[in-house]
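Subject: Sanity check before I submit

Could someone independently write out the C-alpha coordinates for this chain? I want to compare against mine line by line before I put it in a report. The sequence has 318 residues.
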Amino acid sequence: MGSRSFILYPALALALTACNNAPPAGFPGYVEGEYVRVAAPLSGTLLQLAVERGTPVAKDAPLFTLESAQERAARAEAEARVRQAQAALANLEKARRPPEIAAARAQLAQAQASLRQSEADLQRTQKLVADKFLPPQKRDEAIAARDRDRARVAELAQQVQIANLPARSDEIAAANAEVKAAADALAQAQWRVEQKSQTAPAAGLVVDTLYRPGEWVAAGAPVVSLLPPANVKVRFYIPEAIIATVRVGDAVVVRCDGCGADIAASIRFIAPQAEFTPPVIYSRENRSKLVFLVEARPDTPNAALHPGLPVEVARAAR
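---
Independent answer below. Compare away.
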Protein backbone atom coordinates (compact mmCIF):
# COMPACT_ATOMS: atom_id res chain seq x y z
CA MET A 1 0.00 0.00 0.00
CA GLY A 2 1.02 3.54 -0.49
CA SER A 3 -0.50 6.97 -0.28
CA ARG A 4 -0.59 9.83 -2.68
CA SER A 5 -1.64 13.15 -1.36
CA PHE A 6 -2.66 16.31 -3.12
CA ILE A 7 -2.09 18.86 -0.38
CA LEU A 8 -4.35 21.87 -0.78
CA TYR A 9 -4.53 24.10 2.25
CA PRO A 10 -7.30 26.72 2.08
CA ALA A 11 -7.19 29.68 4.41
CA LEU A 12 -7.18 28.24 7.90
CA ALA A 13 -9.52 29.41 10.57
CA LEU A 14 -6.75 28.96 13.12
CA ALA A 15 -6.26 32.73 13.42
CA LEU A 16 -9.68 33.00 15.02
CA THR A 17 -8.27 31.71 18.27
CA ALA A 18 -5.81 34.61 18.42
CA CYS A 19 -8.63 37.00 19.31
CA ASN A 20 -10.57 34.82 21.72
CA ASN A 21 -10.36 31.51 23.54
CA ALA A 22 -13.33 29.89 21.76
CA PRO A 23 -12.37 26.91 19.61
CA PRO A 24 -12.89 27.34 15.87
CA ALA A 25 -16.09 26.00 14.33
CA GLY A 26 -14.20 23.91 11.81
CA PHE A 27 -10.74 22.95 10.65
CA PRO A 28 -9.72 23.07 7.01
CA GLY A 29 -8.18 20.00 5.48
CA TYR A 30 -8.13 17.81 2.38
CA VAL A 31 -8.99 14.32 1.23
CA GLU A 32 -6.24 11.77 0.76
CA GLY A 33 -6.25 8.27 -0.71
CA GLU A 34 -4.18 5.27 0.35
CA TYR A 35 -3.53 3.49 -2.94
CA VAL A 36 -3.04 -0.24 -3.37
CA ARG A 37 -0.34 -0.84 -5.97
CA VAL A 38 -0.64 -4.41 -7.23
CA ALA A 39 2.56 -6.10 -8.40
CA ALA A 40 3.79 -9.61 -9.16
CA PRO A 41 6.77 -10.98 -7.20
CA LEU A 42 8.22 -12.35 -10.46
CA SER A 43 9.38 -10.55 -13.57
CA GLY A 44 8.12 -11.09 -17.10
CA THR A 45 6.53 -9.56 -20.17
CA LEU A 46 3.05 -8.15 -19.61
CA LEU A 47 0.82 -10.50 -21.60
CA GLN A 48 -2.62 -9.16 -20.75
CA LEU A 49 -4.01 -6.09 -18.97
CA ALA A 50 -7.59 -6.81 -17.94
CA VAL A 51 -8.58 -3.36 -16.59
CA GLU A 52 -8.57 0.28 -17.67
CA ARG A 53 -8.05 3.51 -15.79
CA GLY A 54 -11.15 4.94 -14.15
CA THR A 55 -13.10 1.68 -14.05
CA PRO A 56 -14.29 -0.03 -10.85
CA VAL A 57 -13.28 -3.61 -10.17
CA ALA A 58 -14.65 -6.22 -7.80
CA LYS A 59 -12.59 -8.12 -5.25
CA ASP A 60 -10.64 -11.00 -6.86
CA ALA A 61 -11.32 -9.66 -10.37
CA PRO A 62 -8.43 -10.34 -12.83
CA LEU A 63 -6.04 -7.41 -13.20
CA PHE A 64 -3.10 -8.55 -15.35
CA THR A 65 -1.14 -11.56 -16.53
CA LEU A 66 2.59 -11.95 -17.22
CA GLU A 67 4.00 -14.53 -19.64
CA SER A 68 4.65 -17.81 -17.81
CA ALA A 69 6.03 -20.34 -20.31
CA GLN A 70 9.13 -21.05 -18.19
CA GLU A 71 7.14 -21.41 -14.98
CA ARG A 72 4.65 -23.80 -16.62
CA ALA A 73 7.48 -25.96 -17.93
CA ALA A 74 9.00 -26.09 -14.45
CA ARG A 75 5.63 -27.13 -13.04
CA ALA A 76 5.32 -29.95 -15.59
CA GLU A 77 8.78 -31.18 -14.63
CA ALA A 78 7.87 -31.08 -10.94
CA GLU A 79 4.68 -33.05 -11.62
CA ALA A 80 6.71 -35.75 -13.41
CA ARG A 81 9.12 -35.98 -10.47
CA VAL A 82 6.21 -36.44 -8.07
CA ARG A 83 4.85 -39.31 -10.16
CA GLN A 84 8.31 -40.91 -10.31
CA ALA A 85 8.79 -40.68 -6.53
CA GLN A 86 5.31 -42.06 -5.87
CA ALA A 87 5.95 -45.00 -8.20
CA ALA A 88 9.24 -45.80 -6.46
CA LEU A 89 7.52 -45.74 -3.07
CA ALA A 90 4.71 -47.98 -4.27
CA ASN A 91 7.25 -50.46 -5.61
CA LEU A 92 9.01 -50.63 -2.24
CA GLU A 93 5.77 -51.09 -0.35
CA LYS A 94 4.83 -54.16 -2.41
CA ALA A 95 6.37 -57.65 -2.47
CA ARG A 96 8.46 -58.73 -5.44
CA ARG A 97 6.78 -59.51 -8.73
CA PRO A 98 5.19 -62.99 -9.11
CA PRO A 99 7.84 -64.25 -11.59
CA GLU A 100 10.60 -63.32 -9.12
CA ILE A 101 8.83 -65.17 -6.31
CA ALA A 102 8.30 -68.21 -8.56
CA ALA A 103 12.00 -68.29 -9.47
CA ALA A 104 12.98 -68.18 -5.78
CA ARG A 105 10.60 -71.06 -4.99
CA ALA A 106 12.02 -73.12 -7.87
CA GLN A 107 15.54 -72.65 -6.54
CA LEU A 108 14.33 -73.76 -3.10
CA ALA A 109 12.73 -76.90 -4.57
CA GLN A 110 15.98 -77.72 -6.36
CA ALA A 111 17.97 -77.30 -3.15
CA GLN A 112 15.51 -79.50 -1.24
CA ALA A 113 15.93 -82.23 -3.86
CA SER A 114 19.71 -81.99 -3.51
CA LEU A 115 19.36 -82.27 0.26
CA ARG A 116 17.27 -85.43 -0.04
CA GLN A 117 19.89 -86.90 -2.35
CA SER A 118 22.77 -86.04 -0.02
CA GLU A 119 20.92 -87.50 2.97
CA ALA A 120 20.36 -90.77 1.07
CA ASP A 121 24.02 -90.81 -0.01
CA LEU A 122 25.08 -90.32 3.62
CA GLN A 123 23.02 -93.31 4.79
CA ARG A 124 24.52 -95.59 2.12
CA THR A 125 28.03 -94.34 2.81
CA GLN A 126 27.67 -94.91 6.55
CA LYS A 127 26.58 -98.54 5.88
CA LEU A 128 29.47 -99.17 3.49
CA VAL A 129 31.98 -97.66 5.92
CA ALA A 130 30.57 -99.84 8.73
CA ASP A 131 30.98 -102.92 6.50
CA LYS A 132 34.58 -101.87 5.71
CA PHE A 133 33.87 -101.40 2.01
CA LEU A 134 34.75 -97.67 2.13
CA PRO A 135 37.25 -95.74 4.18
CA PRO A 136 35.97 -93.42 7.00
CA GLN A 137 36.83 -90.24 5.07
CA LYS A 138 34.03 -91.04 2.58
CA ARG A 139 31.57 -90.82 5.44
CA ASP A 140 32.97 -87.42 6.39
CA GLU A 141 32.58 -86.23 2.81
CA ALA A 142 28.97 -87.39 2.73
CA ILE A 143 28.22 -85.58 6.02
CA ALA A 144 29.77 -82.38 4.66
CA ALA A 145 27.68 -82.64 1.46
CA ARG A 146 24.51 -83.11 3.52
CA ASP A 147 25.31 -80.11 5.75
CA ARG A 148 26.04 -77.96 2.70
CA ASP A 149 22.68 -78.83 1.15
CA ARG A 150 20.88 -78.13 4.44
CA ALA A 151 22.42 -74.66 4.58
CA ARG A 152 21.44 -73.99 0.97
CA VAL A 153 17.84 -75.01 1.65
CA ALA A 154 17.71 -72.70 4.71
CA GLU A 155 19.14 -69.79 2.67
CA LEU A 156 16.66 -70.19 -0.19
CA ALA A 157 13.75 -70.56 2.25
CA GLN A 158 14.67 -67.17 3.72
CA GLN A 159 14.88 -65.64 0.24
CA VAL A 160 11.38 -66.90 -0.59
CA GLN A 161 10.10 -65.36 2.64
CA ILE A 162 11.84 -62.05 1.89
CA ALA A 163 10.43 -62.04 -1.64
CA ASN A 164 6.92 -61.94 -0.15
CA LEU A 165 7.73 -58.94 2.08
CA PRO A 166 7.88 -55.20 1.21
CA ALA A 167 11.14 -53.26 1.48
CA ARG A 168 12.74 -52.42 4.81
CA SER A 169 11.24 -49.61 6.86
CA ASP A 170 14.26 -47.33 6.40
CA GLU A 171 14.05 -47.68 2.60
CA ILE A 172 10.35 -46.90 2.68
CA ALA A 173 11.01 -43.87 4.94
CA ALA A 174 13.60 -42.59 2.45
CA ALA A 175 11.14 -43.06 -0.41
CA ASN A 176 8.46 -41.18 1.56
CA ALA A 177 10.90 -38.32 2.04
CA GLU A 178 11.53 -38.25 -1.71
CA VAL A 179 7.79 -38.04 -2.36
CA LYS A 180 7.41 -35.15 0.09
CA ALA A 181 10.37 -33.27 -1.41
CA ALA A 182 8.94 -33.71 -4.89
CA ALA A 183 5.51 -32.52 -3.69
CA ASP A 184 7.07 -29.43 -2.09
CA ALA A 185 8.92 -28.64 -5.31
CA LEU A 186 5.64 -28.97 -7.19
CA ALA A 187 3.93 -26.59 -4.76
CA GLN A 188 6.66 -24.01 -5.35
CA ALA A 189 6.35 -24.40 -9.11
CA GLN A 190 2.56 -24.04 -8.88
CA TRP A 191 2.94 -20.88 -6.76
CA ARG A 192 5.24 -19.33 -9.36
CA VAL A 193 2.71 -20.02 -12.09
CA GLU A 194 -0.11 -18.52 -10.04
CA GLN A 195 1.90 -15.38 -9.24
CA LYS A 196 2.11 -14.53 -12.94
CA SER A 197 -1.62 -13.63 -12.80
CA GLN A 198 -2.78 -11.06 -10.25
CA THR A 199 -6.29 -10.25 -9.05
CA ALA A 200 -7.74 -7.32 -7.13
CA PRO A 201 -7.08 -7.71 -3.38
CA ALA A 202 -10.13 -5.52 -2.69
CA ALA A 203 -12.93 -3.85 -4.59
CA GLY A 204 -12.04 -0.36 -5.72
CA LEU A 205 -11.38 2.08 -8.52
CA VAL A 206 -8.56 1.57 -11.02
CA VAL A 207 -6.65 4.83 -10.60
CA ASP A 208 -3.77 4.04 -12.95
CA THR A 209 -2.20 1.34 -15.10
CA LEU A 210 1.57 1.65 -15.23
CA TYR A 211 2.49 -0.76 -18.06
CA ARG A 212 1.11 -1.75 -21.43
CA PRO A 213 0.96 -5.28 -22.93
CA GLY A 214 4.30 -6.27 -24.43
CA GLU A 215 6.38 -4.28 -21.94
CA TRP A 216 8.84 -5.96 -19.57
CA VAL A 217 7.79 -5.75 -15.93
CA ALA A 218 10.45 -6.11 -13.24
CA ALA A 219 9.77 -8.26 -10.19
CA GLY A 220 7.80 -6.30 -7.62
CA ALA A 221 7.02 -3.40 -9.98
CA PRO A 222 3.39 -2.19 -9.59
CA VAL A 223 1.29 -2.67 -12.70
CA VAL A 224 -2.12 -1.47 -11.47
CA SER A 225 -2.96 1.15 -8.83
CA LEU A 226 -6.27 0.73 -6.99
CA LEU A 227 -8.15 2.93 -4.55
CA PRO A 228 -10.57 0.94 -2.36
CA PRO A 229 -13.39 3.12 -0.99
CA ALA A 230 -12.36 2.30 2.58
CA ASN A 231 -8.89 3.75 1.92
CA VAL A 232 -10.14 7.32 1.57
CA LYS A 233 -9.37 9.53 4.57
CA VAL A 234 -9.41 13.17 5.59
CA ARG A 235 -6.35 15.00 6.92
CA PHE A 236 -6.67 18.26 8.84
CA TYR A 237 -4.80 20.26 11.48
CA ILE A 238 -5.89 21.13 15.01
CA PRO A 239 -4.26 23.96 17.00
CA GLU A 240 -1.98 23.06 19.85
CA ALA A 241 -4.22 24.90 22.31
CA ILE A 242 -7.12 22.45 21.95
CA ILE A 243 -5.38 19.20 20.94
CA ALA A 244 -5.72 17.89 24.51
CA THR A 245 -9.50 17.80 24.08
CA VAL A 246 -9.33 15.54 21.01
CA ARG A 247 -9.22 11.75 21.25
CA VAL A 248 -8.91 8.92 18.77
CA GLY A 249 -12.43 7.67 18.11
CA ASP A 250 -14.09 11.09 18.46
CA ALA A 251 -16.88 11.72 15.99
CA VAL A 252 -16.48 14.53 13.45
CA VAL A 253 -18.35 15.73 10.38
CA VAL A 254 -16.80 16.52 7.02
CA ARG A 255 -18.13 19.27 4.75
CA CYS A 256 -17.13 20.10 1.21
CA ASP A 257 -18.43 22.03 -1.77
CA GLY A 258 -20.99 19.91 -3.54
CA CYS A 259 -21.05 17.19 -0.89
CA GLY A 260 -24.58 18.00 0.26
CA ALA A 261 -25.23 16.73 3.77
CA ASP A 262 -22.49 16.46 6.36
CA ILE A 263 -20.43 13.27 6.14
CA ALA A 264 -19.99 11.43 9.43
CA ALA A 265 -16.44 10.35 10.23
CA SER A 266 -14.32 9.39 13.20
CA ILE A 267 -10.77 10.29 14.18
CA ARG A 268 -8.33 7.42 13.62
CA PHE A 269 -4.94 9.07 14.14
CA ILE A 270 -3.46 12.05 16.00
CA ALA A 271 0.16 12.94 15.32
CA PRO A 272 2.30 12.52 18.44
CA GLN A 273 4.37 15.61 17.62
CA ALA A 274 3.39 19.15 16.81
CA GLU A 275 4.46 20.96 13.66
CA PHE A 276 4.32 24.54 12.52
CA THR A 277 1.36 25.71 10.51
CA PRO A 278 1.96 24.44 6.94
CA PRO A 279 3.67 27.09 4.78
CA VAL A 280 0.78 27.61 2.38
CA ILE A 281 -1.46 28.73 5.21
CA TYR A 282 1.02 31.10 6.87
CA SER A 283 -0.39 34.47 7.85
CA ARG A 284 0.69 37.25 10.15
CA GLU A 285 -1.68 35.93 12.79
CA ASN A 286 -0.88 32.20 12.75
CA ARG A 287 2.65 31.79 11.42
CA SER A 288 4.04 30.99 14.85
CA LYS A 289 1.27 28.67 15.98
CA LEU A 290 1.80 24.94 16.45
CA VAL A 291 -0.71 22.47 15.05
CA PHE A 292 -1.17 18.69 15.13
CA LEU A 293 -1.96 16.57 12.13
CA VAL A 294 -5.17 14.58 12.59
CA GLU A 295 -6.65 11.92 10.31
CA ALA A 296 -10.28 10.84 10.17
CA ARG A 297 -12.07 8.23 8.11
CA PRO A 298 -15.71 8.35 6.98
CA ASP A 299 -17.96 5.94 8.83
CA THR A 300 -19.17 4.71 5.43
CA PRO A 301 -17.43 5.23 2.06
CA ASN A 302 -18.69 8.32 0.26
CA ALA A 303 -18.28 8.79 -3.49
CA ALA A 304 -18.17 12.58 -3.08
CA LEU A 305 -14.77 12.46 -1.37
CA HIS A 306 -12.04 12.52 -4.00
CA PRO A 307 -8.31 12.71 -3.17
CA GLY A 308 -7.17 16.33 -3.21
CA LEU A 309 -10.61 17.74 -2.46
CA PRO A 310 -10.53 20.63 0.09
CA VAL A 311 -12.82 20.00 3.06
CA GLU A 312 -13.76 21.45 6.42
CA VAL A 313 -13.88 19.21 9.46
CA ALA A 314 -15.93 20.02 12.54
CA ARG A 315 -16.70 18.22 15.75
CA ALA A 316 -19.94 16.30 15.70
CA ALA A 317 -22.76 17.69 17.80
CA ARG A 318 -23.27 15.86 21.07
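---
OP: Matches mine. For the report I'm noting this point. The longest strand covers residues 27-39.
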